[in-house]
Design goal:
The protein is mainly α and about 290 residues long. The chain folds into two domains: about 80 residues, Orthogonal Bundle (DNA polymerase, domain 1), CATH 1.10.150; about 180 residues, hpI Integrase, Chain A (Orthogonal Bundle). The chain has 14 helices and three strands. Strands 1-2-3 form a three-stranded antiparallel sheet. Strand 2 and strand 3 form a beta hairpin. It starts with a helix and ends with a helix.
């Protein structure tokens, strides 16, 4: 099992080019399966569909939620499909498995007024004000993932066209729009604040720490939470909340779902469709408030 797992992870890294985070997620699933097999004094050759279903049932009883159980099932299916294709197993025991439907959880969002209050609460003249304002403006204007913002470099930004090239999940590159206000905040930061942060250790990352290094994801989370607290916003504000708000406000403004999918970098339209449920909630609320027979 250990040899097969190592070979499969190498396959994901070298031939599929999948991210380290995804490799780690798959490894955790396979480690759990290996531990379950050891408890039963079994190995890969003893596994059939019934055994995999029993393993997944145990994971569910251990408290794994439907969304995580679905991911675990996908990990098992791609692993055993690979084993069968490599001739390490005579058949694929995971092929009949059905992944559970994930629970529908609507994403949290901020109202447009809260976003404006957050952005307008930052004084650019204060220490790190220009940097932090640029970070929040770009998050909301472009719907970036946290990792995408942290990896953004100067050479990726085109101010003439107002576009930023980012590398997202699976090392996929896409072009995102950066709005006028965000471009203005970025230019102000690059001209009047970033030069003071540059040190010998600095790279071309757009956003730098006080020591001149690139900002870590944890540090960006802290910045977002601190700025939200200073703005008096009661919600738990985090980077992905700004991404959700970006998508929801676009949909409410009439943007096409396919365009939002492209801007967010979703491989599957079904991932983007969660935002249509948010919009339906808004439509229901408006209907209840204004229709005489609601």
């Amino acid at each position: 099992m250990e040899t097969a797992c190592d070979a499969f992870i190498r396959f994901l890294a070298t031939e599929r080019g999948l991210s380290e985070a995804y490799q780690l997620s798959v490894r955790q699933t396979l480690d759990a399966l290996a531990g379950w097999l050891r408890q039963r004094d079994s190995d890969l050759r003893d596994i059939g569909t019934d055994e995999l279903a029993e393993f997944l049932g145990g994971r569910k009883r251990d408290g794994l939620i439907a969304a995580s159980l679905r991911i675990t099932t996908v990990h098992l299916k791609i692993f055993f499909r690979w084993l069968a294709a490599q001739g390490r197993l005579e058949m694929d025991p995971a092929e009949p498995l059905l992944a559970p439907r994930p629970d529908l959880t609507l994403p949290e969002t901020l109202h447009a007024a809260e976003i404006i209050a957050l952005l307008e609460s930052i004084d650019p003249a204060q220490p790190l004000g220009r940097r932090d304002l640029a970070i929040l403006e770009v998050f909301y204007a472009s719907g970036l993932r946290l990792s995408e913002l942290c990896k953004a470099r100067l050479e990726m930004m085109d101010f003439d066209e107002g576009f930023l090239r980012v590398t997202g999940k699976g090392n996929k590159t896409r072009i995102v729009r950066v709005g006028t206000k965000a471009c203005e905040a970025l230019l102000d930061y690059l001209k009047n604040a970033r030069p003071a942060l540059v040190s010998k250790r600095s790279s071309s990352h757009i956003f730098l720490s006080v020591r001149g290094g690139s900002l870590s994801p944890d540090r960006v989370r802290q910045i977002v939470k601190r700025r939200a607290a200073l703005a008096g916003i009661a919600h738990n504000v985090y980077p992905h909340l700004l991404r959700h708000s970006f998508a929801t406000h676009l949909l409410e403004g009439g943007a096409d779902l396919r365009v939002i999918q492209e801007l967010l970098g979703h491989a599957d339209i079904s991932t983007t469709q969660i935002y249509t449920h948010v919009d339906r909630q808004r439509l229901k609320a408006v209907h209840r408030q204004f229709h005489p027979r609601a």
